[in-house]
Write a structure and sequence with these properties.
- The chain is mainly beta and 117 residues long.
- The protein has no helices and eleven strands.
- The chain has strands at 2-6, 9-11, 17-24, 32-38, 45-51, 57-59, 67-72, 77-82, 91-98, 107-108, 112-116.
- The strands form two sheets. Strands 2, 4, 5, 6, 9, 10 and 11 form a seven-stranded mixed sheet that branches. Strands 1-3-8-7 form a four-stranded antiparallel sheet, with no helix packed on it.
- A hairpin with a 6-residue loop joins strand 4 and strand 5 (45-51).
- It is globular, with a radius of gyration of 13 Å.
Length: 117
Amino acid sequence: VQLVESGGGSVQAGGTLRLSCAHSGYSFRSNCMGWFRQAPGKEREGVASIYTGDGSTYYADSVKVRFVVSRDYAKSTVYLQMNSLKPDDTAMYYCAADPMCSGHVSYWGQGTQVTVS
């Protein structure tokens, strides 16, 4: 199983970034996937998640309205569109997969850094 993130970088406050997570190794359909982030000195926190079956989503209050999570079946990829970025969004962002939608992450990506100044 592989989760490969891309799309991180450095932007100014108010800017946008789109993170991608390419999924392989088992069926992408009917799968819970999400994005977490961890800032220096802080615990890892859940940001957004999506059920690839029907596209239902969940967002942390801190990113609601600003971030959008989506999926592309043809590319077996999950995206995190991040708008109106704030310095507080600076963190390492990780893609995660929970194949059984049990609430426990089974697989993690390697992470991609997002820096907002």
